[in-house]
Amino acid sequence: MMQIILFDLDDTLLDFKHAEQAAIEQTLLRLGICPKQETLRRYSEINKAQWMLLEKGELSRAELKVRRFCRLFSELGEDCSARQAAAIYEEALAGRHELILGAEILLKQLYGRCRMYGVTNGTAAVQKKRMAISGLSRYFSGLFISEEVGVPKPQKAYFDYCFSHIPEFCREKTLIVGDSLTSDILGGRNAGIYTVWFNPKKEMQKEEIFPDAQIHSLNELLPLLKQLENQEGGKSGNTSV
Predict the structure, then answer these.
(1) 217-227: string of b/e by CB count within 10 Å (b at 16+)?
(2) Helices (DSSP H) in 77-213: which residue ranges?
(3) What's the pLDDT tens digit per position in 60-73?
(4) Strand order of the sheet with strand 4-8?
């Protein structure tokens, strides 16, 4: 059945929300700013908005790293260096590797039965370190980081690059699992592969982007894969799920 699975990293396998809060709190403390909950929440909102612009190609990664802090400090009335804040934040974030519930169990179950690749818009140095210290790297055949690819998800060029670097790639036997409709699911649909939306909070689907399937916990993925296999009829080979 499915021989290749593309996994988004942040908030699909790695708990980005937890990591982000800890990293921004550490950053603000280093700069002498009280990390109030409202400030942490506002940073998260600003950061998310900047990443959306990056996905649309309206903002570069270098601009994003500084702009989010410029906006936050402007709102707070703080005279701090946004570039210094960005450096402190990335260092702190790289050290956070908390996992989404069930992530490693799922990867262990799938390992050896299919080939798995990480697909991420995150910063290369940060993501590589987080994957290494989390222990998840051992399960993956490769990691495609948009900073190194040159274009972000959901752009088709990103997926074209990934596909061209996956040995014996077969579009019909590939799926993507991710938490973002606008990045993972839209990108996967535009690339012509099966899409699985990881939606643990059971959020309403706001965007006009429709995944092929939806799961609310990672332990639902394996039963879904078996269901897809049964729908095709016949048993999968040794290298497929």
Answers:
(1) ebebbbebbee
(2) 82-94, 103-110, 124-134, 146-149, 156-164, 186-191
(3) 999 999 999 999 99
(4) 142-145, 115-120, 4-8, 174-178, 194-198, 213-215
- CA dihedral of residues 24, 180, 209, 140 (deg, nearest 10): 160
Neighbours of 55 (CB within 10 A): 20
Q: What is the longest distance spanned by two Cα atoms in the chain?
A: 65
Residue-level pLDDT at 231: 85
* pLDDT computed for residue 237 by the predictor: 40
Measure the CA–CA gap between 55 and 52, rounded to whole angstroms: 5
Q: For domain 16-94, is the CATH number 3.55.40.20? A: no
Per-residue pLDDT, 241: 47
Q: Which residues contact 142 (CB under 8 A, 6 or more apart)?
A: 117, 118, 165, 166
Query: Pairing state of beta strands 213-215 and 115-120?
Result: unpaired
Tokens found for residue 154: 């959901």
- Active-site positions read 8
- Alpha carbons 148 and 140: distance in angstroms, whole number: 17
Instruction: Enumerate the domain spans of the chain.
Output: 4-15+98-232, 16-94
What does residue 194 show for φ and ψ, rounded to 5 degrees?
-70, 140
Residues of the chain with pLDDT under 70: 1, 233-241
pTM: 0.90
- Do the beta carbons of residue 157 and residue 151 sit within 8 Å? yes
CATH of domain 4-15+98-232: 3.40.50.1000
Containing 27, the helix (H) or strand (E) segment is helix 16-30
